[in-house]
């Protein structure tokens, strides 16, 4: 009986200091149509790696394009590192990371799986768009969640969040750091 009371007190203190309820440590089950991504980690804002069905894979978040953190031709783009840190934080804090693959495990030209990533049930693709870390891109047909993604992007654009804060930075063909004042561009060191 004392153990039950102590556990209740610990939960109450946790809720008091964090403002949220403590979730169960039990592993959540994936939603139907999704695969669990084990040992997930962020590569950049729109790509993660992990283990799916026992195989090490890279997963590209479909319909989402974040600025680059390192690229042979484009280099490091403004807001790229921030997008990577956002994804990294969401992935590392998640109890459950899932991917809903596009089609039957389609891959992009780099051999990455492409799909919608969920962290604790929340759509990471949408969160990146909603918070102004990404733009909707690479839509070559009709995709699941596309309308939700376009709405999230429009909301971030209207609020001028992050990538949308500088007029002309986001264009149809990608990101254009050359429109940003030199003081806003972080140089590689």
From TrEMBL:
Question: Sorted alphabetically, which PROSITE patterns does this protein's record hold?
Answer: TNASE_3
Residues forming the TNase-like domain are: 33-166
Q: Which GO terms describe its molecular function?
A: endonuclease activity; hydrolase activity
Organism of origin is Thermoactinomyces daqus
- Please name the Gene3D superfamilies in this protein's record: 2.40.50.90
- What start-end ranges are recorded for coiled-coil regions in this protein? none
**Which keywords belong to this entry?**
Endonuclease, Hydrolase, Nuclease
Question: Could you identify this protein by its name?
Answer: Thermonuclease family protein
Q: Does the UniProt entry include the keyword Nuclease?
A: yes
What domain of life does the UniProt record list for this protein's source?
Bacteria
């Amino acid at each position: 009986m004392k153990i039950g009371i102590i556990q209740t007190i610990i939960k109450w203190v946790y809720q008091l200091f964090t403002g949220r309820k403590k979730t169960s440590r039990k592993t959540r089950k994936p939603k139907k149509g999704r695969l669990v991504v084990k040992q997930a980690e962020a590569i950049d804002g729109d790509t993660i790696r992990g283990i799916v069905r026992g195989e090490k894979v890279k997963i590209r978040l479909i319909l989402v394009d974040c600025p680059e953190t390192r690229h042979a031709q484009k280099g490091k783009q403004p807001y790229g590192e921030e997008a990577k840190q956002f994804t990294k934080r969401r992935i590392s804090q998640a109890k459950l990371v899932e991917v809903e693959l596009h089609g039957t495990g389609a891959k992009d030209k780099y051999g990455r799986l492409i799909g919608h990533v969920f962290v604790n049930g929340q759509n990471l693709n949408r969160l990146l768009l909603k918070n102004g870390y990404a733009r909707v891109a690479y839509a070559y047909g009709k995709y699941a969640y596309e309308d939700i993604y376009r709405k999230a992007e429009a909301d971030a654009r209207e609020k001028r969040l992050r990538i949308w804060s500088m007029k002309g930075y986001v264009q149809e063909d990608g990101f254009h750091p050359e429109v940003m004042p030199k003081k806003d561009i972080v140089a590689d060191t």
